[in-house]
Design a protein that fits this description.
By secondary structure, the protein is α+β, with helices and mostly antiparallel strands. Strands 4-3-2-1-5 form a five-stranded antiparallel β-sheet.
Length: 734
């Protein structure tokens, strides 16, 4: 039993019980019950001792006295606590059961339907006193509005109240209701008041209030129900009952920072983050310190500090402590400057200066010049090493302030080695300050070394062809620039296959070159002479930075504006890249696919983009970003299909009427050395069906057969993969 109390009164009662002096025990018990210091724990110890002696009558009498005395004496709640804990010890007794029923009627007078609940449990003869008390306590724990879980139901329910006529507890499960009596209530468990799934069904008002007043708490409830980790798309789907799709972007733009700062949640970066419910709460500021400490590269650490300082909504005191921590760590790094690269030194000075500008009461001035900490460093090369646009902007601002005379030369010298975004910052600063001559020099240097300035020449091409920065690029020949840019882009495309970091740049190049209507490329071609047009065509053909559709568009522009370059000599049908041979049936399917794209899917996507844009801020709008990405995919596919359909030529039996293998041929061949005969047909790309031995005529195997005739031996593959066939006959394959 429970640990025995050590006061003299309880000790006496336990001694009397052990001696089985029950009359004396009852008298002493009555006195103890009148003593306010004699509480439930002491009473339980005595009742337990009597129960251990299997003395049913004394146990019944002592229990009755306790219930009666404490109920009348205003201690009904304490009496209930004793009965709840001692129910399994109590003997079956109608008198005792009636007294306990009265106890619950008084102790739980405010409970919904208490008289019915007592009648449903203590009023039943078939339950037994321990079970009746247990079921009554279960029912009392389920007031109206409480959530319940029934393992036989897919969804949680909500208690409606007590049905006095049916003597059941009514529970709603959304589309249906069920009544639970004292027996069936055993299958029900009390649900979590924070169960998001139950709140969706029965607490919509509370969720709507949380969406406005405490988005972080709403997100916590979602992750508690569906997590502990969720992808952004799944998180959004789970919230659809609360946040309609049309309101999502506006709500998330306001809620995002609040959710990120929640001590209960982790939110990864990017427009579509992963959300995680933390096992142990941790403040946003502690996580910020951890992210700062664990940042692998100095540039990442500095960019994080800037991002944190730029956010709004921080607790002022906590923010001051975190910024002081950042500044202290950065300052100590500067003191150990022998271990730091010049870029880290410059970036750290710039960030500290920016923190001082924004929070002078927290971060003091550095008072140290870059040249002092990194003597002899090539400042232009250091500037060019900053790829993050936010960090680069901070560094450039710092240099303009600390080097009022020298910064223009530094900026112009950095242009050739920078990416498009930083180039734009540098050029804008030079142009606004009236240094068009330095900007022109930078452009000339980029033109002189296009292989070394691949990213910069792309920026120069977009800026010059758009007519930006006044006359700074007046002397740049647009056609020559285009040729250099396309050749550099080809190498970028090649390198991007292994270097994922270059892929965003490849996407930018495709968007710029593949603009509808020809974009700036049309104007360049119209001004170019024939020789330049020929070089542009050569640079675009097989360019590894461009998609097939974009290459086709560029070549079409060249063909329209400079048609003389496309008077090509006759070629074999399978070598003609300007023609796609196909059967009429296959072409029809492609035309239907194209029609579906341009009449159904692309218009639907355009509506989705418009709807997402109407929601407000699109800078971190997941729907808007997703719709734009889908637009690009659909447009590229439509353009590719349109280009391919434009090249299509229906296969005629006459093309394959000769005795040599060509497009449209059916070849009867014997595999060597096993002698197995097969019939292979070589048709268009949309007709291919390898399982039935129908091959695209430009497939490697098909090309091995092209031009062969009966009696020839065809060899395909090398080494252990080599295959050989003897051609037995050739005829039309249509």
């Amino acid at each position: 039993m429970t640990q025995q109390p050590h006061d003299d009164q309880a000790t006496l009662l336990l001694a009397l019980a052990a001696a089985r002096q029950f009359d004396d025990l009852e008298a002493a018990w009555m006195g103890a019950l009148e003593d306010p210091a004699f509480g439930p724990d002491a009473a339980l110890a005595v009742l337990g001792a009597v129960a251990d002696l299997e003395a049913a009558k004394p146990l019944e009498s002592l229990t009755w006295l306790l219930v009666s005395t404490w109920t009348e004496g205003g201690r009904a709640a304490e009496a209930r606590a004793v009965i709840r804990r001692a129910a399994d010890l109590l003997p079956a007794s109608d008198v005792l059961c009636d007294e306990i029923a009265g106890l619950y009627g008084q102790a739980c007078a405010d409970a919904d339907g208490i008289d019915t609940l007592v009648e449903m449990t203590l009023g039943r003869d078939d339950l037994g006193l321990p079970t009746a008390v247990a079921r009554l306590e279960t029912l009392l724990a389920l007031p109206p509005g409480a959530f319940v879980v029934d393992p036989r139901r897919r969804h949680p329910g909500c208690v409606l109240g007590v049905d006095a006529e049916r003597k059941v507890l009514k529970v709603s499960f959304g589309e249906s209701e069920r009544g639970y009596d004292a027996v069936t209530i055993a299958s029900v468990e009390a649900g979590d008041a924070e169960d998001y799934r139950a709140l969706v069904a029965f607490g919509a008002e509370r969720l709507a209030e949380l969406a406005e007043s405490d988005p972080a708490e709403l997100a916590r409830l979602v992750l508690k129900a569906h997590g502990p980790e969720m992808r952004f798309r799944d998180f959004k789907t789970a919230l659809e009952p609360v946040i309609p799709a049309k309101a999502w972007s506006r709500w998330w733009s306001k809620a995002r920072d609040l959710v990120r700062r929640s001590p209960h949640l982790d939110v990864s970066g990017g427009p579509q983050p992963t959300l995680t419910l933390r096992v142990r709460p941790r403040s946003f500021e502690d996580r910020a310190r951890e992210t700062f400490d664990e940042a692998g590269l100095p540039a990442a650490r500095l960019a994080f500090v800037l991002a944190y300082a730029s956010e709004t909504g921080h607790d002022p005191q906590a923010e001051a402590e975190v910024l002081a921590y950042f500044a202290g760590a950065l300052g100590r790094r500067l003191e150990a400057r022998a271990q730091a690269e010049p870029a880290e030194v410059l970036g750290t000075l710039a960030v500290l200066a920016e923190l001082h500008r924004r929070h002078p009461e927290v971060v003091g001035p550095t008072g140290t010049a870059f040249q002092t900490l990194a003597p002899g460093a090539d400042l232009a090369a250091v500037v060019a090493s900053f790829a993050d646009a936010g960090l680069a902007r901070c560094v450039l601002s710092y240099l303009r302030e600390t080097l009022p005379e020298a910064w223009p030369q530094v900026f112009a010298g950095a242009v050739p080695a920078c990416g498009p975004g930083v180039c734009d910052l540098l050029a804008a600063a030079l142009f606004e300050a009236g240094h068009e001559d330095l900007l022109a020099q930078a452009a000339a240097e980029v033109m002189r070394r296009p292989d070394e300035c691949r990213a910069a020449i792309f920026w120069l091409w977009t800026a010059a062809t758009a007519g930006r920065f006044g006359r700074a690029f007046a002397d740049v020949d647009r056609a020559s620039l285009t040729i250099r840019f396309l050749l550099a882009a080809d190498k970028i495309g090649q390198d991007a296959r292994d270097d994922r970091g270059l892929r965003p740049l490849v996407s930018e190049i495709r968007s710029a070159v593949g603009a509808r209507g020809g974009g700036p490329l049309r104007a360049v071609l119209e001004a170019a002479d024939d020789a330049q047009a020929k070089d542009i065509r050569a640079a675009a053909e097989r360019n590894r930075a461009l998609t097939d559709a974009i290459r086709s568009r560029v070549l079409d522009l060249v063909r329209k504006i400079h048609p003389s370059h496309f008077a090509a000599p006759a070629v074999e049908p399978w070598e003609d890249e300007n023609v796609i041979y196909t059967t009429a049936q296959a072409l029809q399917k492609q035309e239907e696919a194209y029609g579906d794209l341009v009449t159904i899917r692309i218009p639907a996507n355009a509506k989705a983009i418009g709807a997402a844009a109407e929601l407000g801020d699109v800078s971190d709008n997941a729907e808007f970003t997703s719709a734009l990405e889908e637009r690009d995919r659909l447009a590229e596919r439509a353009e590719r299909l349109q280009a391919d359909i434009g090249k299509a030529r229906i296969l005629m039996a006459s093309l394959a009427a000769g005795d040599t293998v060509t497009v449209g041929s059916a070849v009867r061949a014997r595999r060597l050395p096993d002698g197995q005969e097969q019939t292979l047909r070589f048709l268009g790309p949309w007709d291919a069906d390898v399982e039935n031995h129908v091959y695209f005529y430009r497939a490697p195997l098909a090309l091995a057969f092209m031009g062969k005739k009966a009696g020839d031996v065809v060899t395909y593959g090398e080494g252990p993969n080599e295959q050989r066939w003897e051609v037995l006959g050739v005829g039309p394959g249509l």
